[in-house]
Amino acid sequence: MVGVLLTVLLLIAGYAETANILFVIPFSAMSHYIFLRPIGLELAHRGHNVTVITTHLEKNPMPNYNQVEVTQKKIWELIEDDTGTIFDMADLSAEEFHHKVVWPGGLAFTELTLNSPEVKEFLMKDNTFDLVICEQFVQEALYALSVKYNAPLAIISTFGNCMRHNIMTRNPLQLATVIADYLNVYNPGSFWGRLRNLYFTGYEYLWWRYWYLGKQEELVKKYLPELADETLSLYDLQKNASLMLINSHFSFDTPIALLPNIIEIGGVHVTQSNASLPEDLQKLLDESKNGVVYMSFGSNLRSADLPEQKKKAFINVFKQLKQTVLWKWEEDILENKPKNLVTGRWLPQQEIIAHPNIKLFITHGGLIGMQEAVYNGVPIVGVPIFCDQYNNVLLAEQTGVGKILQYNDINEETLKQTLNEVLNNESYLKKAKELQQRWKDRPMSPLDTTIFWLEYVIRNKGAEYMKNPARNMSWFAYSMMDVYAFLLVVVVVCVTLTVNFIQTFLNGSQIDTTDRKKIKKS
Ligand SMILES: *[C@@H]1O[C@H](CO)[C@@H](O)[C@H](O)[C@H]1NC(C)=O
Predict the structure, then answer these.
(1) Do 233 and 328 belong together in one domain?
(2) What angle do the packed helices 412-424 and 308-319 form, to 10 degrees?
(3) Which pTM value belongs to this model?
Protein backbone atom coordinates (compact mmCIF):
# COMPACT_ATOMS: atom_id res chain seq x y z
CA MET A 1 0.00 0.00 0.00
CA VAL A 2 2.76 2.42 1.00
CA GLY A 3 4.65 1.31 -2.05
CA VAL A 4 1.72 2.09 -4.31
CA LEU A 5 1.23 5.50 -2.68
CA LEU A 6 4.90 6.27 -3.07
CA THR A 7 4.80 5.29 -6.72
CA VAL A 8 1.79 7.49 -7.32
CA LEU A 9 3.44 10.40 -5.48
CA LEU A 10 6.64 9.93 -7.47
CA LEU A 11 4.65 9.81 -10.68
CA ILE A 12 2.85 13.04 -9.81
CA ALA A 13 6.10 14.69 -8.71
CA GLY A 14 7.80 13.50 -11.86
CA TYR A 15 4.90 14.64 -13.98
CA ALA A 16 5.44 18.28 -13.02
CA GLU A 17 8.60 18.29 -15.13
CA THR A 18 7.19 16.34 -18.00
CA ALA A 19 6.42 17.77 -21.38
CA ASN A 20 4.10 17.37 -24.32
CA ILE A 21 6.15 15.96 -27.14
CA LEU A 22 5.18 15.43 -30.77
CA PHE A 23 7.23 12.68 -32.42
CA VAL A 24 6.84 12.72 -36.20
CA ILE A 25 8.18 9.50 -37.72
CA PRO A 26 5.77 8.48 -40.47
CA PHE A 27 8.24 6.74 -42.80
CA SER A 28 7.13 3.17 -43.22
CA ALA A 29 10.44 1.32 -43.69
CA MET A 30 10.76 -1.09 -40.79
CA SER A 31 14.47 -0.39 -40.33
CA HIS A 32 13.75 3.30 -39.63
CA TYR A 33 11.11 2.40 -37.09
CA ILE A 34 13.39 -0.10 -35.33
CA PHE A 35 15.84 2.74 -34.75
CA LEU A 36 13.29 5.42 -33.72
CA ARG A 37 10.90 3.29 -31.69
CA PRO A 38 12.88 3.09 -28.41
CA ILE A 39 13.18 6.89 -28.30
CA GLY A 40 9.41 7.48 -28.29
CA LEU A 41 8.79 4.64 -25.85
CA GLU A 42 11.51 5.83 -23.48
CA LEU A 43 10.18 9.40 -23.50
CA ALA A 44 6.78 8.02 -22.51
CA HIS A 45 8.41 5.76 -19.94
CA ARG A 46 9.93 8.85 -18.31
CA GLY A 47 6.50 10.39 -17.98
CA HIS A 48 6.30 12.68 -20.99
CA ASN A 49 3.05 12.88 -22.91
CA VAL A 50 4.20 11.57 -26.26
CA THR A 51 2.17 11.82 -29.45
CA VAL A 52 3.64 9.87 -32.32
CA ILE A 53 2.68 10.16 -35.99
CA THR A 54 3.59 6.79 -37.43
CA THR A 55 2.77 3.86 -39.69
CA HIS A 56 3.86 1.36 -37.04
CA LEU A 57 1.40 0.99 -34.20
CA GLU A 58 2.38 -0.32 -30.77
CA LYS A 59 -0.07 -2.94 -29.50
CA ASN A 60 -0.18 -2.12 -25.79
CA PRO A 61 1.23 1.37 -25.38
CA MET A 62 1.34 3.28 -22.09
CA PRO A 63 -1.61 5.65 -21.65
CA ASN A 64 0.69 8.65 -22.22
CA TYR A 65 1.85 7.27 -25.57
CA ASN A 66 -0.68 8.52 -28.14
CA GLN A 67 -0.59 7.19 -31.68
CA VAL A 68 -1.75 8.91 -34.84
CA GLU A 69 -1.80 6.47 -37.70
CA VAL A 70 -0.46 7.20 -41.16
CA THR A 71 -2.00 5.27 -44.05
CA GLN A 72 -0.07 2.03 -44.53
CA LYS A 73 1.97 2.08 -47.71
CA LYS A 74 5.45 0.94 -48.57
CA ILE A 75 7.71 3.44 -50.29
CA TRP A 76 8.02 1.10 -53.28
CA GLU A 77 4.25 1.23 -53.81
CA LEU A 78 4.41 5.00 -54.11
CA ILE A 79 7.05 5.38 -56.78
CA GLU A 80 6.88 4.16 -60.33
CA ASP A 81 8.49 0.80 -60.41
CA ASP A 82 10.37 0.28 -63.63
CA THR A 83 13.43 -1.03 -61.85
CA GLY A 84 12.57 -4.73 -61.77
CA THR A 85 13.54 -6.06 -58.35
CA ILE A 86 15.14 -3.89 -55.72
CA PHE A 87 18.39 -5.77 -56.28
CA ASP A 88 18.71 -4.00 -59.65
CA MET A 89 19.35 -0.80 -57.72
CA ALA A 90 22.88 -2.07 -57.15
CA ASP A 91 23.56 -0.64 -60.62
CA LEU A 92 22.28 2.90 -59.97
CA SER A 93 24.66 5.79 -59.34
CA ALA A 94 23.96 7.96 -56.29
CA GLU A 95 22.48 10.63 -58.58
CA GLU A 96 20.22 8.14 -60.39
CA PHE A 97 19.09 6.74 -57.07
CA HIS A 98 18.04 10.23 -55.96
CA HIS A 99 16.11 10.82 -59.18
CA LYS A 100 14.35 7.48 -59.18
CA VAL A 101 13.79 6.88 -55.50
CA VAL A 102 14.77 9.55 -52.98
CA TRP A 103 13.11 12.66 -54.43
CA PRO A 104 9.88 11.12 -55.80
CA GLY A 105 9.60 8.78 -52.81
CA GLY A 106 10.09 11.61 -50.32
CA LEU A 107 7.42 13.78 -51.96
CA ALA A 108 4.92 10.93 -52.26
CA PHE A 109 5.47 9.88 -48.68
CA THR A 110 5.15 13.36 -47.25
CA GLU A 111 1.88 13.79 -49.12
CA LEU A 112 0.65 10.39 -47.97
CA THR A 113 1.33 11.44 -44.38
CA LEU A 114 -0.38 14.82 -44.57
CA ASN A 115 -3.31 13.30 -46.43
CA SER A 116 -3.89 10.45 -43.95
CA PRO A 117 -7.36 10.73 -42.35
CA GLU A 118 -6.08 10.31 -38.78
CA VAL A 119 -3.32 12.87 -39.30
CA LYS A 120 -5.76 15.37 -40.78
CA GLU A 121 -8.11 14.90 -37.87
CA PHE A 122 -5.27 15.27 -35.39
CA LEU A 123 -4.08 18.48 -37.01
CA MET A 124 -7.55 20.02 -36.63
CA LYS A 125 -7.45 19.65 -32.87
CA ASP A 126 -6.19 22.22 -30.44
CA ASN A 127 -3.02 20.69 -29.07
CA THR A 128 0.04 22.28 -27.54
CA PHE A 129 3.53 20.83 -27.65
CA ASP A 130 6.80 21.73 -25.95
CA LEU A 131 8.93 19.98 -28.52
CA VAL A 132 8.47 18.67 -32.04
CA ILE A 133 10.81 15.85 -33.07
CA CYS A 134 10.94 14.92 -36.76
CA GLU A 135 12.84 12.29 -38.61
CA GLN A 136 15.05 13.96 -41.20
CA PHE A 137 14.37 11.94 -44.30
CA VAL A 138 13.33 14.16 -47.21
CA GLN A 139 9.95 14.98 -45.64
CA GLU A 140 10.76 18.56 -44.64
CA ALA A 141 7.17 19.79 -44.94
CA LEU A 142 6.54 18.14 -41.58
CA TYR A 143 9.02 20.53 -39.94
CA ALA A 144 6.25 23.10 -40.36
CA LEU A 145 4.52 21.46 -37.40
CA SER A 146 7.09 23.13 -35.15
CA VAL A 147 5.73 26.45 -36.44
CA LYS A 148 2.15 25.33 -36.00
CA TYR A 149 2.76 24.47 -32.35
CA ASN A 150 5.35 27.20 -31.79
CA ALA A 151 7.76 24.66 -30.34
CA PRO A 152 11.48 24.00 -30.77
CA LEU A 153 12.37 21.51 -33.51
CA ALA A 154 14.67 18.53 -32.98
CA ILE A 155 15.56 16.36 -35.94
CA ILE A 156 16.77 12.79 -35.95
CA SER A 157 18.54 11.04 -38.76
CA THR A 158 18.46 7.28 -38.98
CA PHE A 159 21.60 7.69 -41.07
CA GLY A 160 24.96 9.10 -40.07
CA ASN A 161 26.16 12.55 -40.80
CA CYS A 162 24.08 14.62 -43.29
CA MET A 163 25.96 16.80 -45.74
CA ARG A 164 23.01 19.12 -46.50
CA HIS A 165 22.59 19.83 -42.81
CA ASN A 166 26.31 20.48 -42.47
CA ILE A 167 26.24 22.99 -45.29
CA MET A 168 23.31 25.01 -43.99
CA THR A 169 24.30 25.02 -40.32
CA ARG A 170 27.93 25.68 -41.28
CA ASN A 171 29.21 22.56 -39.69
CA PRO A 172 32.72 22.01 -41.09
CA LEU A 173 32.36 19.92 -44.26
CA GLN A 174 35.58 17.87 -44.13
CA LEU A 175 35.00 16.64 -47.67
CA ALA A 176 38.44 15.05 -47.74
CA THR A 177 37.49 12.46 -45.13
CA VAL A 178 33.72 12.56 -44.67
CA ILE A 179 31.86 11.00 -47.56
CA ALA A 180 28.29 11.86 -48.58
CA ASP A 181 25.99 9.25 -47.14
CA TYR A 182 24.70 7.62 -50.32
CA LEU A 183 27.85 7.82 -52.38
CA ASN A 184 29.92 4.76 -53.27
CA VAL A 185 33.58 5.69 -53.35
CA TYR A 186 36.14 3.00 -52.75
CA ASN A 187 39.03 5.30 -51.87
CA PRO A 188 37.45 8.46 -50.45
CA GLY A 189 40.77 10.15 -49.66
CA SER A 190 42.21 9.82 -53.17
CA PHE A 191 42.11 12.74 -55.61
CA TRP A 192 39.26 11.19 -57.62
CA GLY A 193 37.45 10.15 -54.47
CA ARG A 194 37.49 13.71 -53.17
CA LEU A 195 36.47 15.11 -56.54
CA ARG A 196 33.55 12.64 -56.70
CA ASN A 197 32.50 13.55 -53.17
CA LEU A 198 32.57 17.27 -53.95
CA TYR A 199 30.59 16.75 -57.15
CA PHE A 200 27.88 14.67 -55.50
CA THR A 201 27.66 16.96 -52.49
CA GLY A 202 27.14 19.91 -54.83
CA TYR A 203 24.58 18.00 -56.89
CA GLU A 204 22.59 16.90 -53.88
CA TYR A 205 22.64 20.28 -52.17
CA LEU A 206 21.62 22.29 -55.23
CA TRP A 207 18.78 19.97 -56.21
CA TRP A 208 17.54 19.78 -52.67
CA ARG A 209 17.74 23.44 -51.85
CA TYR A 210 16.56 24.97 -55.13
CA TRP A 211 14.07 22.35 -56.32
CA TYR A 212 13.08 19.82 -53.69
CA LEU A 213 12.40 22.18 -50.80
CA GLY A 214 10.14 24.22 -53.07
CA LYS A 215 8.09 21.08 -53.77
CA GLN A 216 7.88 20.38 -50.05
CA GLU A 217 6.73 23.95 -49.43
CA GLU A 218 3.93 23.40 -51.94
CA LEU A 219 2.77 20.49 -49.78
CA VAL A 220 2.71 22.78 -46.73
CA LYS A 221 0.55 25.24 -48.68
CA LYS A 222 -1.80 22.47 -49.71
CA TYR A 223 -2.23 20.68 -46.38
CA LEU A 224 -1.37 23.31 -43.77
CA PRO A 225 -2.71 26.44 -45.45
CA GLU A 226 -2.93 28.31 -42.15
CA LEU A 227 0.88 28.23 -42.00
CA ALA A 228 1.51 29.20 -45.58
CA ASP A 229 0.65 32.85 -44.83
CA GLU A 230 3.70 33.26 -42.72
CA THR A 231 6.66 33.47 -45.05
CA LEU A 232 7.56 29.95 -44.23
CA SER A 233 10.93 28.68 -45.35
CA LEU A 234 11.66 25.03 -44.74
CA TYR A 235 15.29 25.83 -45.34
CA ASP A 236 15.28 28.30 -42.43
CA LEU A 237 13.36 25.85 -40.27
CA GLN A 238 15.96 23.14 -40.65
CA LYS A 239 18.79 25.63 -40.36
CA ASN A 240 17.40 26.84 -37.04
CA ALA A 241 16.57 23.44 -35.63
CA SER A 242 17.60 23.18 -32.00
CA LEU A 243 19.07 19.74 -32.22
CA MET A 244 20.20 17.20 -34.77
CA LEU A 245 20.66 13.63 -33.58
CA ILE A 246 22.62 11.41 -35.95
CA ASN A 247 23.04 7.66 -36.13
CA SER A 248 26.80 7.29 -35.95
CA HIS A 249 29.58 6.97 -33.41
CA PHE A 250 33.24 7.79 -33.88
CA SER A 251 34.34 4.45 -32.44
CA PHE A 252 33.21 2.93 -35.76
CA ASP A 253 32.33 5.80 -38.10
CA THR A 254 34.81 8.33 -39.43
CA PRO A 255 35.60 10.91 -36.69
CA ILE A 256 34.17 14.29 -37.64
CA ALA A 257 34.03 17.75 -36.07
CA LEU A 258 30.44 18.42 -34.97
CA LEU A 259 28.66 21.49 -33.65
CA PRO A 260 27.46 21.21 -30.05
CA ASN A 261 23.88 20.69 -31.20
CA ILE A 262 24.70 17.80 -33.49
CA ILE A 263 24.88 14.72 -31.30
CA GLU A 264 25.96 11.18 -32.16
CA ILE A 265 23.49 8.57 -30.90
CA GLY A 266 24.71 5.66 -33.01
CA GLY A 267 23.10 2.35 -32.13
CA VAL A 268 20.32 3.79 -29.96
CA HIS A 269 18.16 0.76 -30.80
CA VAL A 270 20.63 -1.90 -29.70
CA THR A 271 20.49 -2.97 -26.09
CA GLN A 272 21.19 -6.04 -24.09
CA SER A 273 17.97 -7.70 -25.10
CA ASN A 274 16.02 -9.56 -22.42
CA ALA A 275 13.67 -11.01 -24.99
CA SER A 276 14.11 -14.72 -25.33
CA LEU A 277 14.29 -16.49 -28.64
CA PRO A 278 11.44 -18.72 -29.80
CA GLU A 279 12.06 -22.23 -28.50
CA ASP A 280 12.96 -23.82 -31.85
CA LEU A 281 15.48 -21.12 -32.71
CA GLN A 282 17.01 -21.21 -29.23
CA LYS A 283 17.48 -24.96 -29.57
CA LEU A 284 18.94 -24.66 -33.05
CA LEU A 285 21.44 -21.98 -32.02
CA ASP A 286 22.40 -23.76 -28.78
CA GLU A 287 22.96 -27.08 -30.50
CA SER A 288 24.94 -25.88 -33.50
CA LYS A 289 28.33 -26.89 -32.17
CA ASN A 290 30.22 -25.58 -35.20
CA GLY A 291 28.53 -22.22 -35.00
CA VAL A 292 25.91 -20.49 -37.11
CA VAL A 293 26.08 -18.25 -40.16
CA TYR A 294 23.15 -15.83 -40.16
CA MET A 295 22.01 -14.22 -43.40
CA SER A 296 19.44 -11.48 -43.88
CA PHE A 297 19.04 -8.72 -46.45
CA GLY A 298 16.84 -6.68 -44.11
CA SER A 299 13.24 -5.62 -44.38
CA ASN A 300 13.31 -3.97 -47.83
CA LEU A 301 15.22 -6.53 -49.85
CA ARG A 302 13.85 -10.05 -50.15
CA SER A 303 16.38 -12.86 -50.47
CA ALA A 304 13.62 -14.74 -52.31
CA ASP A 305 13.92 -12.16 -55.13
CA LEU A 306 17.53 -13.10 -55.83
CA PRO A 307 18.07 -14.25 -59.42
CA GLU A 308 18.30 -18.01 -59.88
CA GLN A 309 22.06 -18.03 -60.50
CA LYS A 310 22.89 -16.19 -57.32
CA LYS A 311 20.39 -18.19 -55.29
CA LYS A 312 22.10 -21.38 -56.48
CA ALA A 313 25.52 -20.00 -55.62
CA PHE A 314 24.41 -19.33 -52.05
CA ILE A 315 22.86 -22.78 -51.64
CA ASN A 316 25.85 -24.61 -53.11
CA VAL A 317 28.33 -22.74 -50.94
CA PHE A 318 26.21 -23.08 -47.80
CA LYS A 319 26.06 -26.83 -48.41
CA GLN A 320 29.85 -27.05 -48.08
CA LEU A 321 30.04 -25.18 -44.76
CA LYS A 322 30.41 -27.04 -41.48
CA GLN A 323 28.37 -24.33 -39.77
CA THR A 324 24.61 -24.25 -39.59
CA VAL A 325 23.14 -21.52 -41.84
CA LEU A 326 20.11 -19.51 -40.79
CA TRP A 327 18.64 -17.54 -43.68
CA LYS A 328 15.83 -14.99 -43.70
CA TRP A 329 14.02 -16.39 -46.72
CA GLU A 330 10.62 -14.89 -47.37
CA GLU A 331 8.90 -17.89 -48.92
CA ASP A 332 7.83 -21.21 -47.49
CA ILE A 333 9.70 -23.36 -49.96
CA LEU A 334 13.34 -23.31 -50.92
CA GLU A 335 14.28 -26.01 -53.38
CA ASN A 336 17.43 -28.13 -52.91
CA LYS A 337 17.75 -26.97 -49.33
CA PRO A 338 20.80 -28.66 -47.77
CA LYS A 339 20.61 -30.23 -44.31
CA ASN A 340 22.57 -27.50 -42.56
CA LEU A 341 20.32 -24.72 -43.90
CA VAL A 342 17.34 -23.42 -41.94
CA THR A 343 15.11 -20.67 -43.28
CA GLY A 344 12.58 -18.37 -41.66
CA ARG A 345 10.23 -15.79 -43.19
CA TRP A 346 10.87 -13.45 -40.32
CA LEU A 347 13.62 -13.82 -37.73
CA PRO A 348 14.21 -11.90 -34.47
CA GLN A 349 17.50 -10.45 -35.63
CA GLN A 350 18.79 -8.67 -32.53
CA GLU A 351 18.38 -11.75 -30.38
CA ILE A 352 19.88 -14.03 -33.02
CA ILE A 353 22.97 -11.89 -33.55
CA ALA A 354 23.42 -11.71 -29.78
CA HIS A 355 23.68 -15.51 -29.51
CA PRO A 356 27.27 -16.60 -28.74
CA ASN A 357 27.23 -19.26 -31.48
CA ILE A 358 26.79 -16.75 -34.31
CA LYS A 359 30.04 -16.77 -36.29
CA LEU A 360 29.16 -14.58 -39.25
CA PHE A 361 26.45 -12.18 -40.40
CA ILE A 362 25.82 -11.96 -44.15
CA THR A 363 24.07 -8.64 -44.63
CA HIS A 364 23.10 -6.06 -47.25
CA GLY A 365 24.92 -3.53 -45.07
CA GLY A 366 21.91 -1.64 -43.68
CA LEU A 367 23.05 0.55 -40.79
CA ILE A 368 20.65 -0.94 -38.24
CA GLY A 369 21.84 -4.52 -38.72
CA MET A 370 25.47 -3.43 -38.99
CA GLN A 371 25.24 -1.79 -35.58
CA GLU A 372 23.69 -4.92 -34.11
CA ALA A 373 26.69 -6.88 -35.40
CA VAL A 374 29.13 -4.29 -34.03
CA TYR A 375 27.42 -4.29 -30.65
CA ASN A 376 27.68 -8.07 -30.44
CA GLY A 377 31.16 -8.42 -31.90
CA VAL A 378 30.12 -10.45 -34.95
CA PRO A 379 32.17 -10.38 -38.21
CA ILE A 380 30.27 -9.58 -41.40
CA VAL A 381 30.18 -10.16 -45.12
CA GLY A 382 28.34 -7.28 -46.78
CA VAL A 383 26.55 -7.25 -50.13
CA PRO A 384 25.60 -3.58 -50.52
CA ILE A 385 22.70 -2.64 -52.82
CA PHE A 386 21.77 1.02 -52.34
CA CYS A 387 21.74 4.05 -50.02
CA ASP A 388 24.46 4.14 -47.39
CA GLN A 389 24.98 0.37 -47.51
CA TYR A 390 28.21 0.50 -49.46
CA ASN A 391 29.75 3.01 -47.07
CA ASN A 392 28.72 0.98 -44.04
CA VAL A 393 30.30 -2.17 -45.42
CA LEU A 394 33.38 -0.26 -46.56
CA LEU A 395 33.85 0.96 -42.99
CA ALA A 396 33.61 -2.61 -41.75
CA GLU A 397 36.21 -3.73 -44.28
CA GLN A 398 38.55 -0.88 -43.36
CA THR A 399 38.13 -1.69 -39.67
CA GLY A 400 38.98 -5.31 -40.42
CA VAL A 401 35.70 -6.77 -39.16
CA GLY A 402 34.34 -7.83 -42.51
CA LYS A 403 34.50 -7.98 -46.28
CA ILE A 404 32.59 -6.44 -49.15
CA LEU A 405 31.17 -8.77 -51.78
CA GLN A 406 29.72 -6.72 -54.63
CA TYR A 407 26.30 -7.94 -55.73
CA ASN A 408 27.36 -8.24 -59.37
CA ASP A 409 30.42 -10.29 -58.40
CA ILE A 410 28.45 -12.99 -56.57
CA ASN A 411 29.12 -16.48 -57.88
CA GLU A 412 30.06 -19.76 -56.27
CA GLU A 413 33.77 -19.04 -56.45
CA THR A 414 33.74 -15.51 -54.96
CA LEU A 415 31.17 -16.41 -52.36
CA LYS A 416 33.08 -19.45 -51.16
CA GLN A 417 36.32 -17.52 -51.01
CA THR A 418 34.82 -14.57 -49.10
CA LEU A 419 32.91 -16.67 -46.58
CA ASN A 420 35.90 -18.90 -45.89
CA GLU A 421 38.17 -15.89 -45.48
CA VAL A 422 35.98 -14.28 -42.82
CA LEU A 423 35.04 -17.56 -41.11
CA ASN A 424 38.54 -19.04 -40.92
CA ASN A 425 40.87 -16.07 -40.56
CA GLU A 426 40.75 -15.27 -36.84
CA SER A 427 41.69 -11.62 -37.30
CA TYR A 428 38.08 -10.75 -38.23
CA LEU A 429 36.69 -12.06 -34.98
CA LYS A 430 39.50 -10.44 -32.99
CA LYS A 431 38.85 -7.05 -34.60
CA ALA A 432 35.10 -7.46 -34.13
CA LYS A 433 35.62 -8.01 -30.39
CA GLU A 434 37.87 -4.93 -30.19
CA LEU A 435 35.29 -2.86 -32.03
CA GLN A 436 32.51 -4.15 -29.79
CA GLN A 437 34.42 -3.11 -26.70
CA ARG A 438 35.11 0.46 -27.89
CA TRP A 439 31.60 0.87 -29.36
CA LYS A 440 30.13 0.30 -25.90
CA ASP A 441 32.73 2.45 -24.10
CA ARG A 442 30.72 5.68 -23.70
CA PRO A 443 29.88 7.98 -20.79
CA MET A 444 26.15 7.34 -21.31
CA SER A 445 24.23 4.80 -23.34
CA PRO A 446 23.01 6.15 -26.69
CA LEU A 447 19.42 6.07 -25.42
CA ASP A 448 20.26 8.05 -22.27
CA THR A 449 22.25 10.48 -24.41
CA THR A 450 19.25 10.96 -26.70
CA ILE A 451 16.81 11.57 -23.87
CA PHE A 452 19.23 13.91 -22.11
CA TRP A 453 19.58 16.17 -25.13
CA LEU A 454 15.88 16.15 -26.00
CA GLU A 455 15.01 17.13 -22.43
CA TYR A 456 17.85 19.67 -22.47
CA VAL A 457 16.25 21.41 -25.43
CA ILE A 458 12.88 21.45 -23.66
CA ARG A 459 14.39 22.74 -20.37
CA ASN A 460 16.29 25.47 -22.17
CA LYS A 461 13.42 26.51 -24.43
CA GLY A 462 15.11 25.57 -27.67
CA ALA A 463 18.66 26.34 -26.49
CA GLU A 464 19.06 29.21 -28.92
CA TYR A 465 22.55 29.90 -27.57
CA MET A 466 23.75 26.49 -28.75
CA LYS A 467 23.14 27.22 -32.43
CA ASN A 468 26.03 28.19 -34.63
CA PRO A 469 25.94 32.00 -35.21
CA ALA A 470 27.72 31.37 -38.51
CA ARG A 471 24.52 29.92 -39.96
CA ASN A 472 23.14 33.42 -40.45
CA MET A 473 26.20 34.80 -42.20
CA SER A 474 26.52 35.04 -45.95
CA TRP A 475 28.71 32.42 -47.55
CA PHE A 476 31.14 35.22 -48.34
CA ALA A 477 31.49 36.34 -44.74
CA TYR A 478 31.48 32.81 -43.31
CA SER A 479 34.27 31.61 -45.54
CA MET A 480 36.18 34.86 -44.79
CA MET A 481 36.37 35.62 -48.52
CA ASP A 482 35.83 39.35 -47.99
CA VAL A 483 38.64 39.52 -45.46
CA TYR A 484 40.98 37.48 -47.63
CA ALA A 485 40.10 39.67 -50.61
CA PHE A 486 40.81 42.77 -48.54
CA LEU A 487 44.17 41.38 -47.42
CA LEU A 488 45.00 40.51 -50.99
CA VAL A 489 44.28 44.09 -52.06
CA VAL A 490 46.42 45.42 -49.20
CA VAL A 491 49.31 43.16 -50.18
CA VAL A 492 49.01 44.09 -53.86
CA VAL A 493 48.88 47.82 -53.04
CA CYS A 494 51.87 47.53 -50.68
CA VAL A 495 53.93 45.62 -53.19
CA THR A 496 53.05 48.05 -55.98
CA LEU A 497 53.88 51.05 -53.83
CA THR A 498 57.17 49.52 -52.71
CA VAL A 499 58.18 48.64 -56.26
CA ASN A 500 57.25 52.15 -57.42
CA PHE A 501 59.14 53.69 -54.55
CA ILE A 502 62.27 51.66 -55.25
CA GLN A 503 62.08 52.54 -58.94
CA THR A 504 61.68 56.24 -58.15
CA PHE A 505 64.53 56.03 -55.65
CA LEU A 506 66.84 54.36 -58.15
CA ASN A 507 65.94 56.91 -60.84
CA GLY A 508 66.35 59.69 -58.28
CA SER A 509 69.81 58.54 -57.23
CA GLN A 510 70.86 58.47 -60.91
CA ILE A 511 69.79 62.08 -61.28
CA ASP A 512 71.57 62.78 -58.07
CA THR A 513 74.94 61.53 -59.29
CA THR A 514 74.70 63.39 -62.58
CA ASP A 515 73.80 66.51 -60.63
CA ARG A 516 76.85 66.07 -58.48
CA LYS A 517 79.07 65.65 -61.53
CA LYS A 518 77.66 68.88 -62.89
CA ILE A 519 78.53 70.64 -59.64
CA LYS A 520 82.11 69.32 -59.70
CA LYS A 521 82.58 70.55 -63.25
CA SER A 522 81.44 74.00 -62.41
C1 LIG B 1 -1.39 14.33 -24.40
O2 LIG B 1 -1.42 14.55 -25.81
C3 LIG B 1 -2.68 14.38 -26.41
C4 LIG B 1 -2.52 14.65 -27.89
O5 LIG B 1 -2.07 13.54 -28.55
C6 LIG B 1 -3.70 15.32 -25.80
O7 LIG B 1 -4.97 15.05 -26.36
C8 LIG B 1 -3.74 15.13 -24.30
O9 LIG B 1 -4.58 16.10 -23.75
C10 LIG B 1 -2.34 15.29 -23.73
N11 LIG B 1 -2.37 15.02 -22.31
C12 LIG B 1 -1.88 15.86 -21.39
C13 LIG B 1 -1.95 15.40 -19.98
O14 LIG B 1 -1.38 16.93 -21.68
Answers:
(1) no
(2) 40
(3) 0.90
